[in-house]
Design a protein that fits this description.
Blueprint lengths: L2 H21 L1 E9 L8 E9 L6 E10 L2 E12 L2 E6 L8 E10 L2 E8 L2 E11 L2 E10 L2 E12 L12
Antiparallel strand pairs: 1-2, 1-10, 2-3, 3-4, 4-5, 5-6, 6-7, 7-8, 8-9, 9-10
Length: 167
């Protein structure tokens, strides 16, 4: 393979790494169930964002609270070959969904395909600036994506986030 092609592959991975590094830190914020049986339910979440050593991916781990009730909540994803795999809320073998694919759109946005039995959808995370993140989970109903969960998170630690200077 030509050196230029190798450089292109390395540069192509940079937005992925930039996005996942920007997730590192502590995040808090409100969320709401916007469709389905529990539509209108508001909650508050606390997450710790981490990245795995030597791998491309992330984990958001924490909990969300509705009144006096607290529910553990997590999402983990890692690059496996040319795609991303992982789980949301323990995956389909638990109470959640499997992450079966997806991609980093750019250094500020990622979209993952989620699945559980006949339920298909997407989980999108967007980090428009160093201190805010929105997460949306949408499911496919009659060939249309319908948002069901939305969260607006703010960074509450002092992790330095920035782009990586090219060599």
């Amino acid at each position: 393979m030509a050196p230029l092609a190798l450089a292109g592959k390395a540069l192509g991975a940079e937005p992925d790494k930039q996005f996942f590094r920007s997730v590192e830190g502590k995040w808090v914020g409100p969320g709401e169930i916007v469709a389905g049986k529990y539509k209108g339910t508001k909650f508050t979440c606390n997450f710790n964002g981490t990245t795995p050593d030597g791998k491309t991916g992330m984990t958001l781990d924490g909990d969300c609270r509705v009144g006096v009730f607290t529910q553990k909540m997590s999402a983990t994803v890692e690059r496996k070959g040319r795609d991303y795999k992982g789980n949301f809320m323990g995956g389909s073998s638990g109470n959640g969904l499997d992450i079966i694919g997806g991609n980093v759109v750019d250094a500020q946005k990622v979209v993952f395909t989620i699945n559980r039995n006949q339920l298909n959808g997407v989980m999108q995370a967007r980090i428009p600036d160093d201190n805010s993140m929105t997460v949306t989970v949408a499911v496919r109903v009659n060939k249309q994506l319908v948002p069901v969960i939305g969260m607006s998170l703010k960074r509450v630690d002092t992790v330095e986030v920035g782009s990586i200077a090219p060599n």
